[in-house]
Design goal:
By secondary structure, the chain is mainly alpha-helical. It contains 62 helices and six strands. The strands form three sheets. Strands 1-4 form a two-stranded antiparallel ribbon. A hairpin with a 2-residue loop joins strand 5 and strand 6. The protein is globular, with a radius of gyration of 42 Å. The chain starts with a helix and ends with a helix.
Length: 1407
């Protein structure tokens, strides 16, 4: 062991700026004790020179900071919470024994006086910096502060040391102990007697407040017994005086005194009790007084955040007398309202909202503030405006429950008048909303549990009813807001408001002399207020919380998180709810009444008949139908919500039963009770018959052409019936409770569905031109031709069904009825029927597609909502879909039905795939066996009788079929049906199996044979019997089968088949006739789809397939060995198409290769793909750069001359095809190497390439801006950490952040390039602007999407780059945007919109 004295001497002379490592090591291994260190420092600690003493104290403080680290105070933590300290090293308890902690605490407490004296001497010396005004630059102010701190080094060291020692409370296993009651008192006395915070800079004051925070967090109970030195001296003097008086008394005097005391015994006991009560109320008074004196006048935001947290703890736990309460009110309310604006270079990140929230927590922490707080809040509310008024309202909302009912009553009229002005004459919507919340809170505090309400509430209702005499005026809307506050608050005020409002409104509505124009606002007001009532019942747990005094019981325990553990305090609640509004109020308990229609006293029952009449009239009216719909929705909500709660649910109300016989009880229509001598109805507000009557009127609106707004209101109203918004268990995935079997489901089934299904004919028939005179024309009809009117009804009806029929009870019926309609619509025409026109055929085809789309929408929506009732439909609907399509197939004589049309087959395939995904593996296997029997063997129940016997073999029809020229229409329809089989293969899991075209039982051989068969079926058939649907089906089958069933590594048979396919179908057709061009393109796309299936499973075979495309197509694209010009043109087009086809491999949003379809999708497969492709493309481009430079002349490219026909162009097109699918991390890491290619791509003779390149530039700009902003934010956070805890903690934070970044996406490797994204764009700014300007004018290669993308790139340039870089190009861009025929004068609306946005951003550029 090295001699520690040498290390200490080296530290004292400045050789070490931090603790010597040998000292730390000796302390950790126990070879050196703190006592030995103190002995070695003995002379230095008592040295006459201030610098030497300061250095010695620093040495001890640094040891404490090393072994007892504490987290810096968090200036944004919640009130009542302190930041817990870090766990010290495991051997700390052996180093810091309780005796050591006590000794060090005494030492540093006593050193505070010496430290303060040194700081004062420095301030008076010539070395002290000159003070600067507050308006000086932040950097100058920081320099002066740092110089001042250097003169207070000993004070800083003592405060840091005491902060570390105060955490030695022993609450955790490794936490040292020893800081107890005596130590708490010593530190408090040292702070209060020596420090005057106003004499010290902000950073030092922060250390003082952090120490106070630690004391309050860990030692609250100890501080309550603290007494100052002056108090202790006064008590000692009083005790000495009492002792001298006792000694001076004679025996006779003592006898007389004894007799006197005996006579006045009771009075003495009462005084003693009163004295004890006063002592209890003033516990910890000396500490509170010292705290108030120490923190008064603080202005720094960071320090205030700490103090506000301490204030709330003290106000919550300490029981204060009037003097202290007023003192705390003075030091807290002086900051209200806060108008702090953080400076632009503020390194701490404290916002105005942070301070407001912290102060609000203090002001609303104790009811003792009520007599002082209400007058001040009312004054601020009337005098302040803008943010100050909003802050006042939020503080009032938080304070009302705490201040209690008695204080609220005492100030109720003043509060109502102030809030009334803000609601009735609001200057903005936010102020009005907060005023309503404050009013709701006031009413809740005053009237919860009070019935009937008296005083303020009736006065508020009366004021509102006066304004509602003119319901169309603006003040009437404000009156509705006030009534809504009463409805939200309590049961009693809700009944009062609803009853008074409905009484007046119903009388006005039924008044025959009233103007009809007034009825619309009346019904609108009814709907609005009842919607508030329904919202209260719908979300009872999220209603307005309130203040409610509780009865005597055990004290409540409130947990306060301290610095090193969790302490508890007890708050004894007061049982007297009418204590005066002075300082004796105890804490209120936040509670809430249960709310339901019955518990509210059924306020709508007296107006049931009038309400039903007004709703019925309103639904039939054209002038106030929307208002009636809104009211209907609210009324039905209240009724449905009642049926799911009281009296049949948990929120039940007891009613005194009348003498009813058993039959009346069984009926349950009217269960009586006595309330004020009247019989009161229970049960839902509206009966089923009443709901059905109103619902039928609303349902009829869904099918009429009344406008989108009215129809949307009607749909929302019916959604209430369907229970999809309120109370149904289905939205959480259940399928039995709630809306599934309730009255809402029955109403939908019996009322709404018949109306909607009535508009769906079995088949669209030719419409008569003349309407019969005895038929009454409904509203909205007759304005369209007959066929268009029928199609309009069908569209509206199917749209309503797709939105309303999601609950199982209704969904099951809808599926059956719609599928029946679909079958009837698709039935082939009988022999005796009249031939239909093409218009009717197309109408029926559209009708059938609408039904299929409706079923698809319902299934997708139910799946998105997590409904679990889809599997049972997946068991039988797939077979019906296949039968439906196959039944539409004709033969060589009979014409095919509409169900066999290509569009319907495609829609049915999508629906079939959705259903297959809902069933399990065993059922999928059974379905695949049935489909194999039908499509491979041509047998089974799914095949129509006229196609059996070998006529239906869709997978065997190919180019070799001789009948192709004669019967191509029939054969094409049969081949199209393979889309159904393909959809099932794609959507099923691997365990469902594959169709067999071989006798082998090996799964791989079965898959390879299927791939060979599908390749031939897709490519080797005549064009007359081939369709896009068939090609798409073949691609999807090949992709998914390869992904699911070809093992890794790929078998020899599979690779040999691929090689043969490439040589024969792609390379072998290169010099064939011009007609082979389309076959080569098709074969290339099939090749890419097979590669896609391998890419997502990260197969090496996929890389070999892509390499063939590069070497055999890209590299040979510039060769001109063809003799014919047409062949050369086809070869060039083929090369471009091959480059574009890379998009097939890169895209992941086609929904084919997904885990949902049972495919193998490897993690990070896209990153692996692009890490292989991008270097390949970049290297290929650069390898041809010196040979044939790419033409960049716009006219030359557009003319199509050979200057642009070279491999470079192909590589640029391939790059642009990859860009939309690039992951952001890959884009940022590779952008520096891709950027020259991106700029070249902006001039390619390819619209998609230009559009993709522009989009990539836009993404790089936005991403660069985000990275820059995030970096600035992180720098600010690091500066805060440096200020709070020193550079060492900040460096640790930075290193930990760097480590986490390395684990995630290797971000540090990309950081350097990410930082330069904006600089990269700025370095090529002139070229980018020039080419974007060229690309948003109408030209051959500038499609609509290209022009929009170029304009968006220009917009992002102006938003992300600095003004100095953009200024030279501003006039150029603006003049281009304003040129005739381009920009804002483009003939496409979407281009004009993008141009207007671009122009606004460039116009707004300024330095």
């Amino acid at each position: 062991m090295a001699d520690p004295s040498h290390a200490i001497r080296a530290y004292m002379v400045g050789s070490f700026q931090e603790l010597p490592p040998s000292i730390i090591q000796d302390l950790e291994n126990g070879s050196l004790s703190l006592l030995s260190i103190v002995k070695l420092l003995g002379e230095s600690l008592l040295d006459e020179q201030d610098e030497v003493r300061t250095r010695a104290v620093h040495f001890l403080a640094d040891i404490l900071a090393h072994f007892l680290p504490t987290n810096p105070s968090n200036q944004q933590r919640k009130p009542l919470e302190a930041t817990p300290s870090q766990d010290p090293p495991s051997n700390t308890t052996s180093i810091f024994t309780p005796q050591v902690v006590k000794t060090l605490t005494t030492f540093f407490s006593e050193k505070l006086s010496d430290a303060v004296l040194i700081a004062e001497n420095f301030a008076k010396s010539s070395k002290a910096p000159q003070p600067l005004p507050a308006s000086a630059p932040m950097t100058k102010l920081k320099e002066v502060e740092q110089q001042t701190i250097r003169g207070s080094d000993m004070l800083v060291a003592c405060l840091n040391a005491l902060n570390c020692l105060s955490a030695c409370h022993g609450h955790t296993p490794n936490q040292p102990r020893g800081f107890g009651v005596v130590e708490s008192h010593k530190v408090s006395e040292a702070l209060f007697s020596n420090l005057r915070t106003s004499d010290h800079p902000q950073s030092l004051r922060f250390l003082v407040y952090s120490l106070l925070d630690s004391l309050v967090a860990h030692h609250r109970s100890n501080l309550k017994s603290y007494k100052s030195a002056a108090t202790l001296a006064a008590e000692a003097a009083a005790m000495a005086e009492d002792d001298s008086d006792d000694d001076a008394q004679s025996p006779g005097d003592q006898a007389i005194t004894g007799d006197k005391n005996k006579e006045e015994g009771e009075e003495a006991m009462e005084k003693k009790k009163g004295s004890k009560k006063e002592d209890k109320a003033c516990v910890g008074k000396d500490f509170l007084k010292g705290y108030v004196k120490l923190v008064s006048g603080e202005k720094d935001p960071r320090n205030l955040m700490v103090l506000f947290g301490v204030d709330k703890v003290l106000l919550t736990e300490w029981e204060m007398d009037t003097e202290l309460t007023e003192a705390f009110f003075d030091i807290t309310y002086c900051y209200f309202p806060i108008s702090f604006r953080p400076p632009p270079d503020d390194p701490y990140g404290i916002t105005s909202d942070d301070l407001k929230l912290a102060l609000r927590g203090v002001l609303s922490s104790t009811p003792s503030f009520a007599p002082y707080g209400y007058p001040l809040l009312l004054e601020k509310l009337s005098a302040a405006g803008g943010p100050a008024k909003l802050d006042t309202l939020r503080t009032l909302i938080a304070s009302l429950p705490v201040y209690g009912r008695a204080a609220a009553k005492a100030n109720s009229k003043s509060l109502w008048e102030a809030l009334k002005i803000e609601i009735f004459h609001a200057t903005d919507e936010e102020t009005s909303q907060l005023s309503c919340r404050a009013l709701t809170q006031l009413v809740t505090v005053m009237y919860e549990g009070v019935d009937p309400p008296e005083g303020l509430a009736p006065m508020m209702v009366n004021d509102c009813l006066i304004e509602l005499e003119e319901p169309g005026k603006s003040l009437a809307k404000a009156a509705l807001k006030v009534l809504a506050c009463l409805v939200k608050a309590t049961r009693s005020t809700a009944y009062l408001a609803i009853y008074a409002f409905m009484d007046q409104m119903m009388k006005m509505f039924t008044d025959p002399e009233i103007d009809l124009a007034v009825r619309a606002p009346i019904l609108a007001g009814v709907g609005e207020l009842l919607a508030v009532l329904a919202a209260v019942y719908r979300n009872p747990e999220g209603g307005q919380s309130s203040s409610k005094e509780v009865t005597q019981g055990p004290p409540q325990t409130v947990k306060l998180v301290g610095g090193g553990g969790v302490d508890s305090i007890s708050v004894q609640t007061n049982t007297n709810s009418d204590v005066g509004s002075g300082g004796g109020l105890q804490a209120s308990v936040v509670s809430k009444e249960e709310r339901s229609y019955d518990l509210d006293g059924r306020p709508l029952d007296p107006f049931l008949s009038e309400l039903l009449t007004s709703l019925s009239n309103g639904l039939r009216s054209t002038s106030y139908r929307r208002s009636a719909l809104h009211a209907f929705s609210s009324v039905v909500s209240i009724s449905i919500l009642f049926s799911t709660s009281s009296p049949h649910g948990s929120s039940s109300v007891e009613v005194e039963a009348m003498d009813l016989d058993e039959e009346e009880r069984a009926q349950g229509d009217q269960v009586g009770g006595k309330e004020d001598g009247k019989t009161r109805k229970t049960g839902p507000f509206l009966s089923n018959e009443e709901i059905s009557f109103l619902t039928h009127n609303v349902s009829e609106m869904l099918t009429l052409p009344l406008g989108d707004e009215v129809r949307e209101e009607a749909l929302c109203a019916i959604e209430v019936i369907s229970n999809e918004r309120f109370g149904g268990g289905l939205t959480q995935g259940a399928c039995g409770a709630g809306g599934a079997g309730g009255e809402g489901g029955k109403t939908m089934e019996k009322v709404v569905l018949p109306v909607l299904l009535e508009c769906l004919p079995d088949r669209i028939l030719p419409q008569r031109e003349e309407r019969s005179s005895d038929v009454t024309m409904q509203e909205g009809e007759g304005t369209q031709p007959g066929l268009e009117a029928v199609k309009g009804k069908i569209r509206r009806s199917l749209g309503a069904i797709s939105r309303l029929c999601l609950i199982p009870q209704v969904f099951d019926i809808v599926v059956v009825r719609l599928f029946t309609k679909l079958e009837l619509c698709c039935n082939k025409k009988s022999e005796g029927e009249e031939e239909e026109s093409e218009e009717i055929k197309e109408a029926n085809k559209g009708y059938a597609r609408g039904i299929i789309l409706t079923l698809q929408t319902l299934l997708d929506e139910k799946k998105a909502r997590g409904h679990r009732d889809l599997a049972r439909h997946g068991q039988n609907l797939p077979q019906r879909i296949v039968k439906l399509v196959l039944s539409g197939l004709g033969d060589q004589v009979t014409q095919a039905g509409i169900s066999a049309s290509q569009e319907i087959v495609a829609d049915c395939s999508k629906l079939l795939a959705t259903l297959v995904r809902t069933i399990d593996k065993n059922r999928q296997r059974g379905l695949m066996e049935m489909l194999e029997k039908a499509f491979v063997k041509g047998e089974g129940d799914l095949v129509p009788s006229h196609l059996r016997g070998g006529k239906f073999r869709p997978l065997e029809l190919s180019a070799s079929t001789e009948e192709a020229d004669d019967d191509y229409g029939w054969m094409k329809s049969i081949r199209d049906t393979v889309a159904l089989y393909g959809a099932a293969i794609v959507a099923s899991c691997k365990g469902a199996g594959l169709p067999r075209f071989t006798n082998s039982d090996d799964e791989t051989e079965i898959a390879v044979e299927l791939i060979r068969r599908v390749l031939g079926w897709t490519l080797d058939s005549s064009e007359k019997i081939r369709s896009e649907l068939q090609i798409r089906t073949g691609k999807m089958i090949l992709c998914t089968v390869v992904n699911k069933f070809i093992p890794e590594p790929a078998p020899v048979g599979f690779t040999a088949m691929l090689s043969k396919f490439w040589e024969e179908k792609i390379v072998g057709l290169e010099k064939a006739t011009t007609s082979s061009y389309s076959k080569r393109i098709m074969a290339l796309q099939v090749w890419m789809w097979i590669a896609k299936g391998l890419v997502v499973r990260s197969s090496k075979e996929a890389e070999r397939m892509l390499e063939k495309v590069r070497s055999d197509v890209f590299e040979r694209s510039g060769e001109s060995n063809q003799d014919d010009d047409d062949q050369r043109e086809d070869a060039w087009k083929f090369s471009k198409e091959a480059a574009r086809s890379l998009e097939i491999v890169a895209r992941s949003d086609d929904g084919v290769v997904s885990k949902e379809n049972g495919c193998i999708v490897r993690l990070l497969y896209k990153q692996r793909l692009f890490s292989y492709l991008l270097p390949l493309v970049i290297q290929g481009y650069r390898s041809h750069q010196s040979k044939t430079p790419t033409s960049t002349d716009q006219d030359e490219l557009e003319s199509g001359v050979s200057g642009g026909r070279n491999p470079q162009t192909i590589y640029l097109i391939s790059l642009s095809s990859l860009l939309p699918s690039l992951p952001p991390t890959t884009l940022t890491s590779q952008l520096s190497s891709l950027f020259p290619l991106l700029i070249q791509s902006l001039s390619l003779p390819d619209p998609k390439a230009r559009s993709y390149s522009s989009n990539t530039l836009t993404i790089s700009l936005e991403l660069g801006k985000k990275i820059r902003d995030d970096r600035i934010e992180k720098e600010k956070e690091r500066e805060v950490a440096i200020k709070l805890s020193g550079r060492r903690v900040a460096d640790q934070l930075a290193s930990s952040t760097s480590t986490s970044d390395e684990v995630e996406n290797q971000k540090p490797l990309q950081q350097q390039e990410e930082v330069d994204l904006l600089a990269l764009n700025e370095s090529h700014l002139g070229t980018i602007i020039k080419r974007c300007n060229q690309n948003f004018e109408k030209a051959r290669f500038n499609s609509t999407s290209t022009r929009v993308s170029s304009l968006r790139t220009l917009t992002s340039l102006a938003r992300c780059l600095p003004y100095q870089a953009l200024r030279p190009y501003k006039n150029q861009v603006l003049s281009g945007l304003a040129s005739p025929g381009r920009g804002i004068d483009d003939d496409k609306r979407i281009v004009r919109m993008a141009a207007v946005d671009c122009r606004d951003v460039w116009y707004g550029l300024e330095e």
